[in-house]
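It is worth pausing here to work through a concrete case rather than discussing structure prediction in the abstract. The textbook approach is simple: state the sequence, then state the predicted structure, then interpret. We follow exactly that order.
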Amino acid sequence: MSVVAVPELSRWVGDVRGHGRGLRVTTHAEAGLVVLSAWRGDRCAATVRLLPAQAAALVAGLTEGLAALQPEVAGRRPELPFRPEPAERRPLRTR
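Step two, the predicted structure:
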């Protein structure tokens, strides 16, 4: 096992279920890719490598989904089932 430093262009989003689950989004400019990695604790469970156009399509889908979740009543702010976690910088374990 080796420890890899988290790239500068990386963002961690925790799963609402907790228990160390989450998604890391990392930009690899040198390769022209955005990598999504699903985590369970300190182990990477899966990765998806996206070209810029694929990442843009994902962002469009997320944007549409968020728009659909907006409350009908203007000015009403929905209660979040979780507290959003700030981006973290933690070492990654590799196999």
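Step three, interpretation. The chain has a mean pLDDT of 80. The first strand starts at residue 2 and ends at 4.
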